[in-house]
Amino acid sequence: MPRPKILVARTIFTETLERLARHFDVQANPDDAIWPGAALARHLQDKQGALTTGTERIDAALLTACPRLKICANMMVGYNNFDVQAMAARGVVGTNTPDVLTETTADFGFALLLAAARRLTESERFLRRGEWIKPGYYRMFAGAEVHGSTLGIIGMGRIGQAIARRGAQGFGMKVLYHNRARLAAAAEATCGARYAGQEELLRNADHVLLALPYSAQAHHLIGAAELALMKPTATLTNIARGGIVDDAALARALREHRIAAAALDVFEGEPALHPNLLTLPNAVLTPHIASATVTTRRAMAELAADNLIAFFEQGRALTPVTPEPQTSHGSQTP
Ligand code: DGY
After folding, report:
1. CA of 102 to the centre of ligand 1 (A)
2. Any atom of ligand 1 within 6 Å of the Cβ of 296
3. Judging by beta carbons within 10 Å of its beta carbon (0-12, 13-18, 19+), is residue 8 exposed, middle or buried?
4. Distance 166 CA to ligand 1 centre (A)
5. pLDDT tens-digit profile of 5-54?
6. Residue 270 annotated as catalytic
7. Does the beta carbon of 104 lie inside 6 Å of ligand 1?
8. Is any atom of ligand 1 closer than 6 Å to the C-beta of 78?
9. Inter-residue contact 160 to 212 (CB < 8 Å)
10. Sheet of strand 174-178, all strands in order from the earlier edge strand to the far edge
11. Alpha carbon separation from 151 to 181, 201, 208, 267 (Å, rounded)
């Protein structure tokens, strides 16, 4: 039986590639090129599987061009690069990498919150510019308190809950959360968090943090009106997805000091950024790296590989995000 052919769409760890090569005929991407739609379709045309990342859009047009494709294993917990309906309609399985990145991403979310509140990058730039001429004891880079303040988390999945635990247990914060569904009482108690409506949360939180998945309903969930509800001393941290925040409205609010600061790891249209964000001293900006530790990125790659191997060899993916097709897709399937 011929081995399934798979495409690894971006550069990943050598040991994961070698492991995949023991199971599949693998086409890798050693140059780490980003293949836009038509090029991706060309590379995928004869493949049954793909290890994908956020830069590969899997939509109806691509699926039509690649009729052999059976599974796309995303090396991310988010999967807004998948058109899940189109994949389900064609029986193409999509998988993601939950759990393995939860704590690492929560660490980074908290790091961003601290950086925005305590003006970390702004003060570091000042120092590097050689402007620290005399010690300041009055208001030099005086920021917002974190310990004992109120944290408002929108999106209370695994990562939101891990951030809540850090806030409540590590920093003695009062934690409010907003989510599509309220958590069970036991989970609320573990996180030390209280459910609140979105408006109540925005009005009362000293630090608002976004950890919800992107969806059409979440597009511009935080825009000018929502920013206007926040305290002028508050910070906003986005580790969720670009497009959930209206970046132009946020840049205006930051410039006019309608909120104190923001920390953003994700952007509308990334890797492009709204140009006004770049000029703002009260914006902490990082290039979508919340899950980027070597250990976690390795675990994400391994889980994506596990999904491909389980799908083709046991007929079932481990962490599907699309409905499983009824037929088996074991190694016999072309
Ligand atoms: C994810 O896994 O969805 C992250 O955003 C990628 O770093």
Report:
1. 10
2. no
3. buried
4. 20
5. 999 999 999 999 999 999 999 999 999 999 989 999 999 999 999 999 99
6. yes
7. no
8. yes
9. yes
10. 193-195, 174-178, 150-154, 207-210, 235-238, 261-264, 283-285
11. 19, 9, 6, 22
Over residues 250-268, the pLDDT tens digits come to 999 999 999 999 999 999 9
For tokens 């990125």, name the residue: 297
pLDDT on residue 325: 60
Nearest CA to ligand 1 atom 2: 76
Nearest to 97 by CA among 271, 249, 300: 300
What is the separation of C-alpha 243 from the centre of its chain, rounded to a whole number of angstroms?
Answer: 12
- Taking only the tens place, the pLDDT of each residue in 208-260 is 999 999 999 999 999 999 999 999 999 999 999 999 999 999 999 999 999 99
Asked if residue 303 has pLDDT above 90, the reply is yes
- Is residue 56 within 8 A of residue 79, CB to CB? The reply is no
Is the predicted pLDDT of residue 333 greater than 70, yes or no?
A: no
